[in-house]
Amino acid sequence: MYNPALIARFPAVYDSKEFLQKVLGYYTVEEIIQDLLEDKINSRLRGVCTHGLGSLGLVEHDVLELAEQRIILAVTRRKTERKKLWKKLVLPLLKAQPEYSYAEYFFSFIAAKYIIAHLPQLFLQRFAETEAEIARRLLLLEYSSSPENFESVLEHVGLPVLPAEQAVPGHFLPEQLKYALPVPEYIRYTYNLKSNPSWQLTQRLVLLGYVLLEHEDVARIFKERYRQRIVETTPVLREPVFEEVREIVQRLLSRFRVRQVAGSSLPEQLEFREEALPPCMRLLYEKLLMGANLSHRERFHLAAFLLHVGLSVDDIFRLFARLPDFNERICRYQLEHIAGLRGGCKKYKPGSCKTLENDGICTESIKDELCKRVQHPLVYYIKKLKMLQQQASK
Question: Is 41 a member of any domain?
Answer without folding.
Answer: yes
